[in-house]
Amino acid sequence: MTKTTGPEVGVTLYSFTNEWLNRQFDLDMLMREVARRGLGPNIEIIGFQSFKEFPDVSDDFASRFKDLIVETGLNPVSLAINSDRFLKPGQQPIDDATLVEYHKRQLRSAKKLGFSLVRYQFALPVHLLPDIAPYAEELGVRMGVEVHAPMWAGHPAVIAYREMYDKLQSPVLGWIPDFGGTATAIPPSLLDAARAAGAKESLIELVQQIWPEPGMSHEKAGKLREIAIREGHDPLHIQAVNLAFFILANHDPKSWAELVDRTIHIHGKFYGVNDAGVEEAIPYETILPLFRDGGFTGTIVSEWEGHAYCADDAFEQVRRHQAMCRRILAGEAVAA
Amino acid sequence: MMLPVERIIGEEGLTVTPRGLRLAMRLPWYRSLPFSVVEVASLAIDGAPVDLTDARVEYDDHSWTLAELGEATNAFWFVRDSAFLVVPTHGVAPGSEHSVSLILKIAPPYIPGMMRTNPQTATLVAG
Predict the structure, then answer these.
(1) Could you give the domains of chain B?
(2) Which of A30, A29, A21 has the alpha carbon at shortest distance from B11?
(3) Which pLDDT does position A26 carry in this prediction?
(4) Quick one: which of A151, A183, A245, B66 has the fewest CB in 10 Å?
(5) Phi, psi at A169, each rounded to 5°
(6) What is the least distance, in Å, from the CA of B79 to any CA of chain A?
(7) Cα separation of A268 and A10, whole Å?
(8) Which whole number is the average pLDDT over A98-113?
């Protein structure tokens, strides 16, 4: 094992969602490709994206997966699990006992596949943590709740979790920041994709006007929908621009400093790294030094989400993003 | 351009089977979801709405009516797989070409209140 002296880079297979969904790669091929291109060795996998048997996994599958890890030399750092609480749309969420067991199933799968860390979600009500944390401790699996837009360090749900973390003092509980919550703008590539899909310039202007306003993301999304429908925009164009409210927020990038001490893993969310090596919407130059200087030594997995609206080459985007992260962590300025 | 995540008509296309007309469907999301959060909202062939009262969704060893789908909370649609919409009564002959319009709705189960509508129209030759 290499001694860690600072943050490491890696990649989540989520970046390759397009290549995965269009059946260009199966799991074996995708892991081999990531290894061949040198985008690992640290990887994150979303259980419900890559494993058909999930939330459970059979002995046979676990054994084949472990063989693949040995063959590729990849390091299974993080398994993203899901806190699926709203299984019946428009009805009551599932009961607490079922949700706790749903998490335990996924924790067991993580352990079985060789992951020592899981990403979980705020959809898990905070009062259930005392029922789950001891089980994760028993398994030796750390749990990071993903602070994803519209959440950020100062969000009430994050504060409630922080209080519970303080109370439980469990060695396995921590944060997984996702930088989408502290974007400076809606990615130009997202707006270009909406234009290409036929959205009118007046709708593009409207979303850019409402997105930075104060308030809750879902309320802003509702406001945009209401105005846009009134102005006669196509519902599919509205859905295309409304995506911005669900994946991005514009909170202060420096606010991540409050979470550094309990950060166990990072989602390096990004949308497009340009030829100069700069991400178009998220201020990495401000954010990464907070974690480096705050003593974070885990992994920043490159998480390209442009696939939600465009078909750019994900492998090239991840290569650029990792180069950018290494440059910033080394304290180098962007090339002139 | 249609992105992989927006595609809802599957690679296996349209086939005439002894049980009825069978259309391949893909899940318009980045991860597997329980069938309970998927709704087959409508199907039209050559512009004419198809009655889905007796239609079924088939996936691996499962088969549900559209009304039963909402109860399938522990059956997951693997995001790389097609599920199949089977319509018992239809007028489609093998080898004929049709414009097929499908609408699926999904409600991701960890994002309260989010509902996405995905339409797709494709010209398919019935196999």
Answers:
(1) 4-125 (2.60.40)
(2) A21
(3) 97
(4) B66
(5) 50, 45
(6) 6
(7) 9
(8) 98
pTM recorded for the entire structure: 0.94
Burial of A78 (0-12, 13-18, 19+ CB in 10 A): buried
Backbone angles phi, psi at B17, to 5 degrees: -125, 170
Q: Are B102 and B119 in contact (CB under 8 A)?
A: yes
Residue of B nearest to A150 (CA): B111
Interface confidence (ipTM) of the complex: 0.94
Instruction: Say which of A22, A83, A90 has its CB closest to residue B110.
Output: A83
CA distance linking residue A79 with residue A299, whole number of Å: 13
Q: Taking a contact as any Cβ pair under 8 Å apart, which residues of chain B between 77 and 96 contact chain A?
A: 78-81
Chain B CB within 8 Å of residue A119 CB:
no
Residue B28, both tokens? 């318009």
Domain spans in chain A, listed from the N-terminal domain onward: 8-184+251-329, 188-245
**Which of A179, A159, A140 minimizes the C-alpha distance to A290?**
A179
Helix (H), strand (E) at residue A96? helix A96-113
Contact assessment for residue A78 and residue A107, using Cβ atoms and an 8 Å cutoff: no
**Under a CB-based contact definition with an 8 Å cutoff, are residues A113 and A77 in contact?**
no
Structure tokens at A329: 């962590």
Say if residue A314's pLDDT is above 80.
yes
C-beta atoms of B73 and A94 within 8 A? yes
Measured at the CA of A323, the angle between CA A19 and CA A20, to 5 degrees, comes to: 10
How does DSSP assign A25-75, residue by residue? Answer: --HHHHHHHHHHTT--SEEEEEHHHH-TTTTS--HHHHHHHHHHHHHHT-E
Q: What is the DSSP letter of A114?
A: T
Q: How far apart are CA A25 and CA A201, in angstroms?
A: 37
Closest CA to A82 of A140, A127, A42, A122: A122
Kindly identify which residue of chain A lies nearest to residue B39, measuring between CA atoms.
A89
Average pLDDT over residues A155-160: 96
Taking the CA of residue A97 and the nearest CA in chain B, the distance in Å comes to 15
Which residue reads 């989010």 in tokens?
A: B114
Full DSSP string of B50-77: PP-TT-EEEETTEEEEHHHHTT-TT-EE
| pLDDT (0 to 100) of residue A245 | 92
Q: Which two tokens stand for residue A41?
A: 């060795």
Q: Tell me if residue A151 falls in helix, strand or coil.
A: coil
Query: Homologous superfamily of A8-184+251-329 in CATH?
Result: Divalent-metal-dependent TIM barrel enzymes (3.20.20.150)
Contact: B70, A84; criterion CB under 8 Å: no
Alpha-carbon distance of A123 to A126, in angstroms, equals 9
